[in-house]
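ugh ok so i messed up the first submission bc i forgot one of the chains. this is the corrected input, ALL of the components this time, i swear. 998 residues overall. if the numbers dont match what u have on ur side tell me asap before i send this to the collaborators (the ones from the other lab, u know who)
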Amino acid sequence: MNSVDYLQLLKLAAPETIVVVAALGVLFADLGVMRSESRQSRLLIAGAISALACFAAWMWIIFTPVHASVLNGVWVVDPLTQIIKQVILVLTLLTAAISINSTFTDHVGEYTALVLLATAGMMFMVSSEDILMIFVSLELTSLCLYALTAFNKRQPASAEAALKYFLYGSMAAAFTLFGLSLLYGLSGSSNLTTIARSLAGRGMDPMLAVALVMTVIGLGFKVAAVPFHLWAPDAYQGAPTPAAALIASGSKVASFYLFAKVMMVGFAGAEGSGAWGGFSPGWTPVIATLAVFSMVLGNLAAIAQRSVRRLLAYSAISHAGYMLLALLALAEPAHRQQAMAALVFYAATYGLTTVGAFAVVSVIAQGENRDDFGAFAGLSRRAPVLALCLMVFFLSLAGIPPLAGFFGKFYVFTVATGLGSSSFSLLWLVIFAIAMSAVSLYYYLQVLKQAYVVSAPDGTAALPLALSDRITLISVAIGVVILGVVPNVLLGPLQAAVEATLK
Amino acid sequence: MLAWTIYSSLIGVGVLMALPVGNARAARQVALACASLGLALGLASALQFRPEAGTLEIVNTSWIPALGIQYHLGADGISMTLVVLTGIAAVAGILFSWNIEHRAKEFFAFYLALIAGVYGVFLSLDAFLFFVFYELAIIPKYFLIAIWGSTRREYGAMKLALYSFVGSAMVLVGLIAAYVISGAHSFDLVALAKVHFPEGFQYWAFPLVFVGFAILAGLWPFHTWAPTGHVAAPTAASMLLAGVVMKLGAYGALRVAMSLFPQGLRAWQGEFVSLAVIGIVYGAMVALVQKDFKFVIGYSSVSHMGFVLLGLVSLHEIGLSGAVLQMFSHGIIAGLLFAVVGRMVYDRTHTRELAVLQGMGLNQVMPFAAVTFIVASLASMGLPGFSGFVAELSVLIGAWHAYPTAAVVAGIGVVIGVAYLLRVLQMAFFSDAPPRPTEDTAHPMEPITVPERLGAMLLIGATLIIGLCPQLLLNLITPSWQGPLFDQLRKEAGF
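and heres the new structure output, hopefully the right one now
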């Protein structure tokens, strides 16, 4: 192994370094200097530092385009990972912005530091192609998120959710570790590309099948795909809302990219086939199964929900199903670039929309102390801006044009249909997905009906909307509209990056 | 210029959202200004339009190059006809909702958003763009009905939204499959219409896309959203629903399903002719026994839209032109009927029960409403001199060429149409029953207002002009069949 150029490594990892330093800085500032200040000003300072750090890291990425791989794939920076990191940073920035007005904790420094460390973990996750590093970054992210989930100490539900999340998560991590160690044992390497090369031509023997399924279990847990989704509704409902937003957005984006990378690179040559009536073993039939179950269960269970956060959790599960569809399309080298662009576009717009949706829920839950449908009644008159933003986010999640969610879905469906061109091998899944997304309109409209149609009970006061929340919400809503009307804003750079990265 | 019909409506939405709450007067005026501008632009373009010169290109720029999607707006005679219809219906609808005070600003914002979507659909020449506008129209419909509607409004609104969304999901599957199989890397409708899709593909894609669109056009047996939706909707929304939204479905069926997959249509022609004829007769027969005034009109819409579908699937030039003419004609007449029932009668009597109306002697109380309704019924029956006559006659001629039996049965539908219209006319306005003294005598009914008169004049004028001089529209419509969009359809139909 050749020696490491630490200076170069530092330069490549500068965005992550900025985020980690900011995490330590926030801790230091909050615990050392700001102890006596009011919670509000501490939150403001902490939020400002983390937003500044995310912004600085974002700008760094924009102005230093690099394409390098050090230590044999332990650390890979290319145009695609840079775009995904930008997305993660923007989502964290928004999470920090919606935390400013929260009241759930007095441990501001610890909370903010955990958010930033989780973000660093996500960025590491995106950048590594080495199974050891992948596992470490997965754990870094997960442990921060478990702790964040438990952060609302006044609510027993928060602790319960965190415990569930933690127990499921550590179990899933154990599976992943087992799967990855089997992979290492089979191939003698920890690098994804080398693993795929030494597994090539091996066929689906039982050992590889076990390794595959174990790995999928761990990653499926991270993206909340059925049947590894059971933690999601509780975590989304129990966690403090900004933490739930981070779990649902940034962590989702990073995990999906990791999932895609492990399948596409690590299990290259073991694709199998998920075509209707023509299944052959490999990772595509496994993912296809997860996708079908996620879409069905997510959408049908969401109909029965009365808590909007739980509804968002089930909707997240169904969206994971759609994204798995894009992941499936990666199996075919000819369509890889389009499929990757579709996956990242979908994940990014979904993340943005979800942060917005959680921001709305956060404002309402704080004003009303509950998040069931009744809390949303008459919102259009109590807080017109909030209601309008809610409408934008929910319609985007439902896939109504001209919002971002519509084009995301359209792109994924088109790419997945185009697979294997004339044979339409995945068309059955696409038809399924489209049918399920028709179902989803129902439950999104149920919430919007509360906001716009039902009137608030007499004597309900107008809902105040803090300035910072107002700015965040409006900018996210504008972003969702712009990404829907001119998707090329993101899609153009994304395609260039994908072309430069996946040859 | 024509693209500004869309933009002016969207700008109107923005202006309305910026207006202060509670200023209903300003909201009405903004909405009327935007809608009138749209109508003026539509009329001016239609007058200038030279159909022989082919499709009018409005905009064509790259939008999403990754999928070869263009922002492509254009118009041929058919879209021109429907743009004018949309303008008339939009203006009339606003005139008939002049009395809306409850959340007026939001009402007109949703209303104009719906109008923008409708204009967009009629002007799109890119399948993706078409679909975007088509879906854009779904959500405003939901809110218009759910917030301002009457009988079972939330149920009716959700039913309509879900039916539309399921329909567009079917269309989406077909569109994506067509895009992939064409290999043209383009959603341009003209380009796709040139592609010769494999027959096996057309055989399943055509019914999928056609039914997807025709759900919105009230194709039997998927029509059940229509009566409930129309009845639940506020007057202006039912005027738009029957007047233009149902046309979106028919237009989509023609522009996408039929022009892309004509062989599929040939294969399924018998089935769809039967469904259209069943719709005509069934809608009319159900209308005959309704107790609720508005349900009569709701079912009559199903019946009349059956003529549109029959004309389309007749695959005969006269029938096709008749179908487009019927879209225009029904849009105007249904608007007028709903205006009388919803605004003039229901807003004043607060009932739509025919049995109750029978005792009110409405021909004495509101002669203007009675006269308007007589004119509208005559037009709806297809009396010569009104647009309905030319349209339904052409459809029947077209159908005769394809399936003579269908034409005969559809003719029976026309006769039943006369029956149910005479029945409601008699029950609602000219009942012999002596007027029962009601406790409301202390509150005389509000007289018919000026906006209502203007709206009624506009609609009556439109149906009369087209009835007396159908060439005005036929000169626009007929040359359109020679356009590049219909190359394959023409070949399949043999004209």
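quick check: DSSP finds 21 helices and two strands in chain A. that seems consistent at least. Chain A touches chain B at residues 338, 341, 380, 384, 388, 395, 400-402, 406-407, 410-411, 413-414, 417-418, 421-422, 424, 427, 430-431, 434-435, 437-438, 441-442, 445, 449, 452-453, 486-488, 491-492, 495 (CB under 8 Å).
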